[in-house]
Request: fold
Amino acid sequence: MAYRPKRNFRQRAADSSDSDSAEESPAEPGTSTEFPAPGPAEEEPPSGGGRAQVAGRPHRIRGPRGRGRVWASSRRATEAAPRADEGSGVQESRTVDVSTDEEDEIHHSSERKDDQGLSSDSSSSLGEKELSSAVEIPDAAFIQAARRKRELARVQDDYISLDVEHASTIFGMKRESEDDPESEPDDHEKRIPFTLKPQTLRQRMVEESKNRYEETSQESQEDEKQDIWVQQQMRKAVKIIEERDVDLSHSCGSSKVKKFDTSISFPPVNLEIIKKQLNTRLTLLQETHRSHLREYEKYVQDVKSSKSTIQNLESSSNQALNCKFYKSMKIYVENLIDCLNEKIINIQEIESSMHALLLKQAMTFMKRRQDELKHESTYLQQLSHKDETSTNGNFTVDGKTQWILEEIESRRTKRKQARVLSGNYNHQEGTSSDDELSSAEMVDFQKSQGDILQDQKKVFEDVHDGFCNIQNILLKFQQWREKFPDSYYEAFISLCIPKLLNPLIRVQLIDWNPLKLDSTGLKEMPWFKSVEEFMDSSVEDSTKESSSDKKILSTIMNKTIVPRLTDFVEFLWDPLSTSQTTSLITHCKVILEEHSTCENEVSKSKQDLLKSIVLRMKRAVEDDIFIPLYPKSAVENKTSPHSKFQERQFWSGLKLFRNILLWNGLLTDDTLQELGLGKLLNRYLLIALLNATPGPDVVKKCNQVAACLPENWFENSAMRTSIPQLENFIHFLLQSAHKLSRSEFRNEVEEIILILVKIKALNQAKSFIGEHHLDHLKSLIKED
Reply:
């Protein structure tokens, strides 16, 4: 192990000033550096070699793997440890010269003693000399000494004084004041110490110096251990290098080349094994070659694709124009949406006003009809019991009922006069809708309606045509579809157009009333024609994506028209009105039949519409149909008020029956048969027929009932019996035919047989003919 002088840190110059001290930085490699040493260290080498006084310890290098040190080959170490007496500025300087020979002798002697297993120390010494000559860095002793020097200078007056005399004077005055016995206070003036007496500055300095000395000693011990470890690692490295050099020198010598040992046996080798190994190797190389070829082909394809893309981009000189178009389209759509969002509130208010006006009118008609029915029925009931209510035979009516009856009769007279002027003489009382308004009511309604229509015209009066005209809006999207069809279809514009056009279409529908026969049809509306033209322009493009534009109109129907039509059915439609029902059916056929997105498709909105129609007709049957039953004595006289009222109510029920069956083709057969036959014919109309006297009048009514039945219900030629819901009606016809066959109205029996044949009650008709020997009527029944 290399000899290393021990550190002997001695506390000195504790009271000296540091006015002349200055910080020193480590010297550059290859230059001599003067630095203060902590004190002389004199020890004899354990090897017994030459004696030397070493002023300091060798420099150290801290590397990434540990801390090492490098020995300097020649150095003059200058130690300047300031030492001063108290109050004096005396400094001591000490220079220790260490010759190169003495350092080498110490180094070599220590290396010889430590290298116990090495045969040569010259290479190790040479390596360390080369390292020490390469880098010269101040060691820890030098840095610790300089640091300690500065700290001792600071602790004298707790700061580094620039005036040495002033600091010494103050310190001397303090010491004299402490040594003066006369300055001590009397016993009664002494203070009782409650805390520990604070240490003087000198005591604190001494204690702090001791603490630092102890810390430095511990650090030096750690440094020594680290240095020993570094030396061991360096010796190992040098040894490995020497062994490698020896191996190289042995391998280079021809005299020391190892001879081949012929005694070693190898596995037998033949041509097949070699061939097999070569084939295996060849197969691997071929597979690798094929994989490289595949990668090459892929790269070639990628290169071609990239070149094609580059050419397309370079050849596309309209990129700027395309970008400008997309930007303008984006701005246009954003402005259009902002405009519609602002106007939609006003549109909804106008729609609500028109709906409320029409609802008020419809409720007026319905309430008036129900009130008149109630008062007239009450009047006739009282009239039939006049003997019980009046002893003198006179019948009195209250003023309100009398006024209502007069009002009813006045409107009937006006309608009858209007029919005579129009040449309609076959009208039956009770089939009129009775929806006339008084002149005052009509004026009020027209004024309110006019105000709403004026508001409708003002909705888009401050908007440019490009944002409120449906044709202009669709023209914008048509240009997009023609110029850039790919981006047009990728953006799903066909789904966006119905939503954009919804507010504009609703404005045009404010004045649309599907319950009026003279209302504008959907196909004649401007928006309908514009959408059809837009769809027709996409027919030329036969691609799959273009089919989405063909669904725009049906989508508008489902999202905009059908919900509005459903509101009319639920709140405004009167099923007793034939004109309203006919007009409503016409519009529903346009929506439900002609503009379905695909065959047999029924959307949710259309299902809701059909359900609303059925529910409204059920409610009409329950609320508006009333056929009273009076004694035959009261109805035998056709001019009596009882007979007239019963006749009107029967024809009113028959009118509703006809209106219900007009929905054939739109509603299912089961729904119509249950509603028209089961609820209305069997419960109301048939009871009135049973209460009537058989005769031509009854046969006429039965003919009207049969005429309302849809022909497609009886198209099956194999049918011999009619549908189950007509069993009661068929039984009534047979009963009436039996009575008429024995009366003066025998000719009416043939009419009844024809009704039975029409409704496919062939078995019943044949049985009746055979029973009554009516052979002349057999020709009416067609045998299959």
